[in-house]
Amino acid sequence: MIIDSWSTANYQLPTINSQLSTLNSQLSTLNSQLSTIYPTSPGSTIRWNK
Questions:
Q1: What pTM did the predictor assign?
Q2: Rounded to a whole number, what is the distance in angstroms from the first to the last CA of the chain?
Q3: DSSP assignment letter at 38
């Protein structure tokens, strides 16, 4: 039934939300570290070697 599917999805949302929150926190930390390694000034862009 459709209602059962929604119930299951709804039950999983808190877990998914928690995982996304953790991931977001880790990305923020990584972003902070990268900013230290590759500082960017306004108007400048980083050109990666291809």
A1: 0.59
A2: 51
A3: S
